């Protein structure tokens, strides 16, 4: 399965909708997208993972790297995910303490801090 990425701006925030699998083969595409957004001055990112069917450690590494990049600019990276199998990965790795995880994009857009 391939990875699909679409981005849209919502005020000062950028929503990155991700679909498919984030693994060792597709993660570089997501990393490149996040780097390009930060380089373009987009420091408040929302990664919508509702369409993600699989996530491995490489994908987690890309998300953590993206978080470090935006934080270097006083930015934020929020996740949107309600799928139990993906949420379980964040819980097991302790990343629920690192990433704000929301149920909907609109909830992530209105979140402050």
Q: What features would you describe in this structure?
A:
The protein is 39% helix and 33% strand. It is α/β, with parallel strands linked by helices. The protein has one domain (7-106): STAS domain (Transcription Regulator spoIIAA, 2-Layer Sandwich), CATH 3.30.750. It has a five-stranded mixed sheet, sandwiched between helices. Strand 3, helix 2 and strand 4 form a beta-alpha-beta unit. Helix 1 (27-39) packs parallel to helix 2 (57-71). The radius of gyration is 13 Å and the shape is globular. The relative contact order is 0.17. The mean pLDDT is 96.
What topology does this entry show?
Elements: E1 3-10, E2 13-22, H1 27-39, E3 44-55, H2 57-71, E4 76-80, H3 84-93, E5 101-102, H4 105-110
Parallel strand pairs: 2-3, 3-4, 4-5
Antiparallel strand pairs: 1-2
Helix pairs in contact: 1-2
Give a concise summary.
The protein is of the alpha/beta class and 113 residues long. The chain has helices spanning 27-39, 57-71, 84-93, 105-110, and strands at residues 3-10, 13-22, 44-55, 76-80, 101-102.
Descriptive labels:
113 residues; alpha/beta; Transcription Regulator spoIIAA; 5-stranded mixed sheet; 39% helix; 33% strand
